[in-house]
Design goal:
A 4-stranded antiparallel β-sheet has the order 2-3-1-4, with helices on one face. The chain has 112 residues and is α+β, with helices and mostly antiparallel strands. The chain has a single domain, classed as Alpha-Beta Plaits, CATH 3.30.70. It starts with a strand and ends in a 28-residue tail after the last strand. The protein has 2 helices and 4 strands; from the N terminus they run βαββαβ. Strand 2 and strand 3 form a beta hairpin.
Length: 112
């Protein structure tokens, strides 16, 4: 699941620490997730690829819990946008020796 998270500061807190805060937020997200941090107009934007069947709702729950940390609690989630669903399962392959499949190392030219 590929998700883009957009966070902004609460009105009572300046965004001067946003690069450091962005790194703090990344560190608190699950280690197995692939993450990409960027900033735009004083907001923190993180793209997350969970690489599994985690839902967008679960990603949102996770980031909401992360933002409860006192060091970054002045940030709030503005958007959690799903960019793509989890990749489809690869098609099952026929085991060697199945009808229509040549045994390894043997090739039969097409007739015709």
């Amino acid at each position: 699941m590929l998700v883009e998270l957009t966070m902004h500061t609460t009105p009572s807190h300046p965004s001067a620490d946003s690069p450091i805060d962005g790194i703090r937020i990344l560190a608190l997200l699950p280690e197995q997730w692939r993450k990409d941090l960027s900033q735009a107009n004083g907001e923190i934007i993180i793209r997350v690829d969970t690489q599994d069947d985690t839902t967008g709702e679960q990603v949102e729950e996770t980031i909401t819990a992360v933002l409860d940390d006192p060091a970054i609690s002045h940030w709030s989630l503005r958007a959690c946008q799903t960019l793509s669903p989890s990749p489809p399962e690869p098609p099952a392959q026929d085991p060697p020796g199945s009808p229509g499949q040549e045994p390894p190392g043997q090739f039969q030219p097409p007739t015709g």
